[in-house]
Amino acid sequence: MANSKLYKGSLQTIILNLLEKNDRMYGYEITQKVKDITNGELKITEGALYPALHKLEAEGFLDVQILKIGNRMRKYYKLTEQGSKETANRLAELEAFIKNMQFIVNPKFKIN
Amino acid sequence: MDRKLISESQIENLYKFTRDHYVYWYDLQSELVDHLANDIEEIWIQEPNLTFENAKNKSFKKFGVCGFMEVIDERSASLSKKYRKMIWKEFITFLTIPKITVTISFIWAVSFLLKNISFNRELILGAILLVSIYPLYHRYKNTKRIKKTVLETDKKWYFEEIITNLGDFGSAMQIPFHIIYIYSDDNFKNSLLQDYSLLFATGFVVFALLVYIATMVIPSKVRALIAKENPEYKIA
Predict the structure, then answer these.
(1) What is the Cα–Cα distance from A78 to A64, expressed in whole angstroms?
(2) What is the pLDDT of residues B66-124, one digit of tens each?
(3) Which of A55, A67, A100, B111 has the fewest other C-beta atoms within 10 Å?
(4) What is the spatial distance between Cα B180 and Cα B201, in angstroms, rounded to a whole number?
């Protein structure tokens, strides 16, 4: 399993990016999607996922809708307009971070 | 083989399970019940012979040693923050055109009274007392309404509880009573209220506006928001 400490700071960005690509999603779907994309390497814990989603919702980045699906209620999250702008900003920050990390761990690394 | 799915009675069992683990609000319960149900169904793909109880406990363990507590605490903090942001957003409208004319008029009127009335200290004390008592009445009235809703629908909503307790403002509402105590001191000079009438008037109007927004404007907006998001939301 991946070192979760390294991913912790990027959890909100991961969620925002998934919602940008998938229109609307619910909590469990997000955990499964991340697991699928990373071939099980990254597992978002339940104790971290919901606080992150609720924080993003309170910031006004996510809209919420609860629907009855089968025999249970399901809470869907969707990006707001403000959330889409925030996603672009955070992805740019993350890319810059990755680039800098590459320079640090591999000083010979060059961008063509 | 058909995929094993959660039954209606097992969903009811999961709601009870969340309640037994200190999740009392239907909105948060529903989200956690759906998560547990999805996970149990996923566990059953790998271990179809596992009982519901064992699968439930296996899924619950993934929330860590504190169970749902972290989720509850963070939910409370997030909703309080959302409430604060809504209050602030509304407050700003009273500092911009056209509502700023109302704000300035009130400050001017209070300042005029403090400067020109001999019993200015009694006047401001009475006004602060009136404005401070209203949030207590708001809390009492809405707590009663929540209890009635729970009796009728068996559902409690987290955001409604936060606005009833005025979020983080609940404890801040005690500050005026300290001010009343200072003003009631015999050594407090009425001339101080006259000399700094504009400052006192501004403080009083800002406080009254915050109480008005938190107790009268935002609650109806929050209820509309809960109703928009939750099809099962009903108020008593």
Answers:
(1) 6
(2) 888 889 999 999 999 889 889 999 999 988 888 899 898 888 888 888 777 777 777 77
(3) A100
(4) 15
Tell me: cis bond preceding A51? Omega within 30 of 0 counts.
no
- Residue type at B92 in one-letter notation: I
Using an 8 Å Cβ cutoff, are B234 and B156 in contact? no
| pLDDT tier for residue B45 given thresholds of 50, 70 and 90 | very high
Instruction: Find all residues with CB under 8 Å of B53, minimum gap 6, and list them.
Output: none
Quick check: A21 and A83 in contact, CB under 8 A? no
d(C-alpha B15, C-alpha B170), whole Å: 30
Q: Which two tokens stand for residue B169?
A: 């403002």
Range with the lowest mean pLDDT among B18-27, B119-128, B176-185?
A: B176-185
pLDDT at A93: 87
Mean pLDDT of B1-5: 78
Q: Cβ B6–A72 below 8 Å, yes or no?
A: yes
**C-alpha B178: how far from chain center:** 23
Distance CA A61, CA A63 (A): 7
pLDDT band at A1 (very low <50, low <70, confident <90, very high): very low
Q: Is A60 an interface residue toward B (CB < 8 Å)? A: yes
- Edge-first strand order for the sheet with A72-79 is A24-26, A72-79, A62-69
Q: How many residues are given for chain A? A: 112
B66 touching A (Cβ < 8 Å): yes
- Inform me whether the C-beta atom of residue B82 falls under 8 Å from chain A C-beta atoms: yes
